[in-house]
Amino acid sequence: MFTGIIQAVGTLAAMEPRGGDMALHIRAGDLRMDNVSLGDSIATNGVCLTVIELPGDGYIADVSRESLNYTTLGELKPGSPVNLEKALTLNTHLGGHLVSGHVDGVGRILERRDDGRSVRFRIDAPSELARYIAHKGSICMDGVSLTVNAVQGSQFELNIVPHTIQETTISGYRSGTRVNLEVDQIARYLERLLLGEKAAGSAEPSGVTEELLARNGFMK
């Protein structure tokens, strides 16, 4: 588990093909590595990766075909910056929201514009994720815990404050940039919970519908 509060920006040192998938060598930058052990988890651009080697300047982690197919990690090139966060502990300050490091889909930046000292982004999410994105709800973009400022259909807006711009990779995002998205866990579990016993069946349509909400007392 993670919080979505980025601890450092690292860089991709190398990508090594291994038996059909990939191993990434990440230079950790300012991330403290003295308390990192083999088998620990580090969120890398929002993707939970397991440390398999500690070469001294960072870590090496395997990336499965699943992760390569459903995240942007396979699009990285040597020198690419990456957001880093070590897994939370029981005494970690939860400054963001609960993040699993399991990416739900890849979105695309549609627009970037200045908004005072902040920067406003409009992002297009995969259509199947739209029902989990709510105004003033939480979303994780490339490992960064953020608040949704506006939403319409599958598109949503984020207002990024100067500190977050300076301390993450978001400073380099432009129209067309692809980003890893993880929706709020509560929304996903609530949807499943509302299905009740029918969750085990295959006939129930996926997603929250008006009929489903009415049946569970959320609509009159």
CATH structural class of the largest domain? Mainly Beta
Oligomer state equals single chain
Give me the count of strands.
12
Distance linking N and C termini: 37 Å
CATH arch. level architecture of the largest domain: Beta Barrel
Largest sheet: 6 strands, antiparallel, barrel
- The CATH topology of the largest domain is Elongation Factor Tu (Ef-tu), domain 3
Query: Fraction of residues in helices?
Result: 10-25%
Radius of gyration: 18 Å
Which word captures the global form? Answer: globular
Uncertain regions: pLDDT < 50 for 5+ in a row? none
Q: What string, H for helix and E for strand, traces the elements in order? A: EEEEEHEEEEEEHEHH
When the domains are counted, the total is 2
Strand content: 35-45%
Enumerate how many helices there are, as a single number: 4
| Class based on secondary structure composition and strand pairing | mainly beta
Q: Provide the spatial order of strands within the biggest beta sheet.
A: 1-2-5-4-3-6
Q: What is the average per-residue confidence, as pLDDT, rounded to a whole number? A: 91
